[in-house]
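Fill in residues.
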């Protein structure tokens, strides 16, 4: 579960909209809104990535997909470890007929 956000979405959207619409420096907009200057700077960069203006960052959709794939990968790794551990306890059988356990050999 992600950590709760420090600033509400409305404030984020307002800051991004103001920086992009007015062209004012991010630090001035942040001061007017009473927030740390790096917060809106990050939000503006992410908005630019989402709109295709930046290629150096993942879009929000790509970040969500990456997070989902990492979770799925971790779950598959856990399942694989469980299956490996369970296979230690199962009897082994040869793939060659007549080469399994002694009780599995066909009568001569």
């Amino acid at each position: 579960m992600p950590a709760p956000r420090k600033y509400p979405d409305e404030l984020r959207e307002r800051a991004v909209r103001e920086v992009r619409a007015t062209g004012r420096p991010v630090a001035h907009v942040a001061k007017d809104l009473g927030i740390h200057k790096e917060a809106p700077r990050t939000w503006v960069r992410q908005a630019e990535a989402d709109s295709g203006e930046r290629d150096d960052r993942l879009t929000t959709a790509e970040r969500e997909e990456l997070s989902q794939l990492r979770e799925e990968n971790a779950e598959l790794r856990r399942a694989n470890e469980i299956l490996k551990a369970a296979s230690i306890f199962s009897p082994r059988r040869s793939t060659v007929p007549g080469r399994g356990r002694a009780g599995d050999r066909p009568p001569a």
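The radius of gyration is 28 Å.
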